[in-house]
Amino acid sequence: IAKLASHVSGQAFFALDATSCSFEQWRLDLKACLMRAGVNNSPQTFILSDDDVFDDRLLEDVNRLLDSGSITNLYQGEDLDAINQACSEACQELGGEATSAGLFSVYLRRVQTRLHFALVFFPGTEVFRERLRVYPALISCCTANWFDEWPKKALVACAEKTLAEGQEAVLGVDIFPLMSKAFVQVYVAAGAMARRFEEDRSRRTQLVVQTMFIELLQGFKQLFVERRAEVADRSEKLHRAIAKIASAREYVRTMEINIESMRPRLDITRTTVQGVIGQLEKERAKAEVHRQVVLSEEATSRDYETQRAEQEAEANRELNEIRPVLDEAAEGLKRIQASQIRDIKGMAKPPPGVMLTIASICMVMGAEPPKKPGQQVVPAEDYWSLAQTSLLKEPKKFLEELLSIDKDSVSEEALRRLDTIAERDEFEPTVVKRASTACEAMCIWVREVRRYHEAKRRAEPKLRLIRSAQEDQNTAKESLTAAQAQLAKAEDAVSAIEEDLATLFRQEQDLLKQIAEAEGNLEHGKGLVTALATESQRWQEQASTLMGRSAFVMGDMLVCAALITFGGPFSPRYRPMFELECQKCLSSLKVPHTPKEGALNVLVDAATLRRWCLHGLAD
Question: Can you tell me the mean pLDDT for 198-222?
């Protein structure tokens, strides 16, 4: 009403927020309101109710304001400057002196004119009487407006408006009139019960006022929303649990089908494993045969290799003895100078040893003079003439050709001709040396070449045996290679079968593991389904009960809200009586509710109540 009156009269409205206010904040808010009224000359309405008085000092300040319009030490220097500046013109208009006292007097007159206090107190308490005695300005400087009980029509309108705030989807518009009448009847019953309780001389006074009707409405809305959410939550949990049990049954049936389908697969896998094991044994036997053949071929190849090596060593023994001497003779050829060759060429009548040496060189190099008719053996002189005209003509070229001769490329014909001069005394190196050291070196080299070929001729049978042994060894190696290829092929086949067998073993183990896990899960699932069979039935009954009691939530929550709002001061004997009166009101209006059901049983379950008792609440 104070708010409405302030709005109609065009005054600013200010109310204290006691939930987040301190005494210092109260002083600041109060001063701000006074400054708006006195400095700004703005009409203000300051509302203070019972709930806002968190400290008696607030009423002391209000008492001073109502009595004198000012509070000691409320204003600071800057506040007084603002007051003096705002009130100077008004002071001059009134013909007063523009002193601090005069200006502040004008300010107080404005405050008393522009500021209105609306004190909303409940008169039926001892606290109110004590406040009137302590703060007399609350009576002497205020106009008291006493409010009687609201008419039923106003109560019904208030109930409908309160229930309609965001609850259309909860209650439905069509049920507002019925529920509003129920609230009014419960409120009236609470007043009657309070008067009956007061008539009992041993009991204290209990008042039922209009604010308690608002509390009844707000309490019902809160309880109804919470209860509806609780019922919906419990119903959802029960249906979800029932669905889980049904799902578990279906899961058990699915596991049984899966186990039955896995067993034939396991049997097929085991049969396949046995067949693969038999095939593996056969392939291993084949591979072992090939391995023995390879071992035999390796032994044969090693024997041929040993035999060939022994024969080759024996055949090369004499050649190896000759080769160092032959190499040394070749080194002697390298020491021959071109000038020495020119000296040999310049001999008009060379000694026999020089002539035989040059002839042997021509034979080795394949230079043959033409034969004369009837001549069987070419004399050394003819070779000398040939050398003079061709070989010795260019000493450097001759030495290069001589050093490039391959000892193994000397023809058999040249070797036979060398035999005719090799045994002559004039062809001895010591004899040849007397005539020419260069011829000595060539003589030694020719003689060693001849000796080398004689050793080769002696080793030829052995070399033939070596070549034969090499052919046998090559044949053995080819056989060994073929056998190794066969063995590798057989081993690859064995490896492939072993891999297939390992894969089959893994499949078998996986199937066994899956079957074992499925059987374990099946056993647990059957036990769980069996154990929860009775629970499922009980949960279905609870869900049906919840669905049935959901229609009684509005009436039950109205009874509970009435007990919470009005039943606190009642004694234990009067509370059940008041609850029964509330249920009669609901029955008379045909509002659905749970008859003969205590509000405590509606609000809390047995487990919660037992827990309260364990924590010390009286049973």
Answer: 72
